[in-house]
């Protein structure tokens, strides 16, 4: 067997994951195929690289030597590919700013502001329900930056070398329900008010299904969950078939009510990711302005922000650490930077659920 860089990636993935099952999932391949490839690699190198038992896979002394030599080679090749792709895009007159994002009401305002800069920036936008997939595209050099959401209990798999900047440390998530739902008569809704309702959740969003289950079960509710995209969820909520989680920037309709949940049991952390701090600087300010513009245009969120600001005016913090931007300003004390994995973190690791 001719040894290739992809074989080094396989060995590093197994060492990092600690099991063939987890490594296969990370590599996007079937476990039997990974087992076969590992055996071929070991045969080519002339010795066992991992011991396998019920506890998982651990490198042998020979495996430690091989993996320690493989890591810098894999990292160097990844950097070479990323830099070459970026240079090729510039040389070919490609897009100056390639953006990825999960769903957000801030996106139209963000793109509008980027296009209005001088000199003009022409952004492209790639949407994905998976924040982890978008982070991978940034790490590979296929995107310049990504605006993503981190789901509570399911930390994002941040590729090594990426820089993260926190836009909102904890944004409360609201509930959307039919305008004639009994709970819609209240300014805020208790989870207990929805104990008899079915929820519709998009299970393809990283960690979202599990996140809502945890929140409901913590409230003593055994959830009746349906899978569906959020366009369908809003349509069914309008006729009273389901209720659904939504971002606080969601605007109400005549047949739908958007309400905060009492105690803000569901929250999200909003992040901008890029390969360098300079790239973050190239889009963060416009994103921040666009987000707070969308917040002011959402009546329920605007009321929530005003109430939270009044409760803690000294620090401009909302309930349970949410970011509250004073009127007329951009950002606030919980905007900031997060270093790459392994570096000291300057911001708390709160995560949360996210909805459009």
The Cα radius of gyration reads 23 Å
Order of helices and strands: HHHEEHEHEHEEEEHEHEEEHHHE
Q: CA-to-CA gap between the ends? A: 49 Å
Shape: globular
Q: How does the helix and strand content classify structurally?
A: alpha/beta
Number of strands: 13
Low-confidence stretches: 314-324, 326-356
The major pleated sheet works out as:
6 strands, mixed
Average predicted confidence as pLDDT: 84
Percent of sequence in beta strands? 15-25%
Protein architecture, described:
There is one protein chain. This protein has eleven helices and 13 strands. The chain is α/β, with parallel strands linked by helices. The strands form four sheets. The protein has a six-stranded mixed β-sheet with strand order 4-3-5-12-6-13, with helices on both faces. Strands 10-7-11 form a three-stranded antiparallel β-sheet, covered by helices on one side. The chain has a two-stranded antiparallel ribbon with strand order 1-2. α2 (20-27) crosses α3. The longest helix has 31 residues, at 61-91.
Question: Could you write a compact summary of the structure shown?
Answer:
This protein has about 350 residues and is α/β, with parallel strands linked by helices. Helix content is about 40%, strand content about 20%.
